[in-house]
Write a structure and sequence with these properties.
It is a single chain. With 367 residues, the chain is mainly alpha-helical. The protein folds into 2 domains: 138 residues, Potassium Channel Kv1.1, Chain A, CATH 3.30.710.10; 151 residues, Up-down Bundle (CREB-binding Protein, Chain A). It is built from 17 helices and 5 strands. The protein has a 3-stranded mixed β-sheet with strand order 2-1-3. Strands 4-5 form a two-stranded antiparallel ribbon. α7 runs parallel beside α9 and α8 packs antiparallel against α9. It is rod-shaped.
């Protein structure tokens, strides 16, 4: 009689907890659909008893399966599984996920950190992946240090890396938080790891910025080479081949952004009296442009750019090549020119070489 009374009271307790908490609707649906009554309780830190089915828990979590099977092997039946250290509602959301494989945005917002810890402890990879993604989307100045520490403890490298990047981008604000002060006082190794990551990130940014500036320079030189060929073969607003009148359009050239500046440099080069003695910096720049063109040009006998063939012959007569830095510059400019040509429409790429082949034999300017 006492045993029947005890069974009835236990069942009543299961039912009250099962249907009285909003997070247990999935369990209630299973029970009302004909599934046997819950045969185990999950005890939370707040004293809440959450009814559950051992078959469901064991099928989703290998850790819970071991907890359930261990008493059975010794002839005992474990009726309570303690899940302590996290809020009661977080445990309730965890149990609901075990039944339904669903987690609401509200639960992720409130208990994402706790759910990540539970998913790691009880080996529920689907929930762990959901928490990793959800927490990465909800990083803030105030919580990023806590999430970083948890990601390290829970072996979540993607989330850990995203936290480091977030801290690197907002470090001035993060270092004012209580979480950062806690790391400084209690976890010097983590502090060192974070600072090293930020330092490496800054170095990468500097290298990227320097590389981008270099690429822009090579693109400008590549455009200057094309602009030089354009001026020498077609003529432009104020400079052109000696047998062609410059265009009547006195406005800036729309074909190349560097055209106007290069025409001014050519005009200066043609009239400067200091260039003979090498005393003019602008003339030296023009000599370098002509030499660079000659190093790139593969048709010097038909090229219309002044001194192209002469530079080629001088290199052959002296029987010595250019220095390593100059060869590297030539390769970079050629590469930039190739990348620039690939970005043009196919038809225009096919027409440009044909135009260059048709123009030959003239190596002087008309100013």
């Amino acid at each position: 009689m006492e045993e029947n009374q005890h069974t009835t009271m236990s069942t009543t307790k299961f039912s009250d907890d099962l249907y009285g908490h909003p997070s247990f609707t999935a369990i209630a649906d299973e029970t009302s659909a004909g599934m046997r009554i819950p045969d185990v309780q999950i005890l939370t830190s707040g004293g809440l008893h959450i009814p559950a089915h051992t078959s469901i828990l064991a099928s989703v979590s290998p850790v819970l399966e071991n907890i359930i099977d261990r008493p059975r092997k010794h002839g005992r039946s474990e009726r309570v599984i303690p899940v302590l250290g996290v809020p009661c509602d977080a445990v309730a959301a965890f149990v609901r996920f075990l039944y339904s494989s669903r987690c609401t945005e509200e639960q992720m917002e409130k208990y994402g950190i706790h759910l990540l810890a539970l998913s790691h402890v009880f080996l529920v990879p689907q929930l762990k992946q959901r928490c990793t993604k959800g927490l990465a989307e909800r990083l803030t100045i105030e919580n990023v240090v806590d999430v970083l520490q948890l990601a390290r403890l829970c072996d979540a490298p993607d989330l850990y890396l995203k936290c480091l990047k977030f801290m690197s981008n907002h470090f001035k604000a993060v270092e004012k938080t209580e979480g950062w002060r806690f790391v400084q006082n209690h976890d010097p190794w983590l502090e060192l790891e974070i600072l090293q990551f930020i330092d490496e990130a800054e170095s990468r940014k500097k290298r990227t910025r320097k590389h981008r500036e270099e690429q822009n320079l090579y693109l400008q030189l590549s455009e200057a080479m094309e602009c030089l060929e354009h001026i020498c073969s077609e003529g432009c607003t104020s400079v052109g081949p000696y047998d062609m009148e410059p265009t009547k359009n006195r406005g800036p050239c729309s074909k190349f952004s560097t055209c106007q500046g290069l025409q001014l440099l050519i005009r200066h080069f043609a009239m400067c009296k200091k260039r003979v003695n090498g005393g003019c910096l602008r003339c030296k720049r023009m000599w370098q442009i002509l030499r660079l063109h000659s190093s790139i040009c593969d048709q010097p006998d038909h090229c219309r750019v002044p001194l192209c063939r002469q530079f080629k012959l001088k290199t052959q007569v002296e029987k010595k090549g250019d220095d390593a830095r100059w060869r590297l510059l030539v390769r970079k400019v050629v590469s930039a020119k190739a990348m620039s040509s690939l970005s043009l429409p196919k038809r225009k790429r096919e027409e440009e070489p044909r135009e260059r082949m048709d123009n030959h034999g003239i190596r002087t300017f008309r100013l």
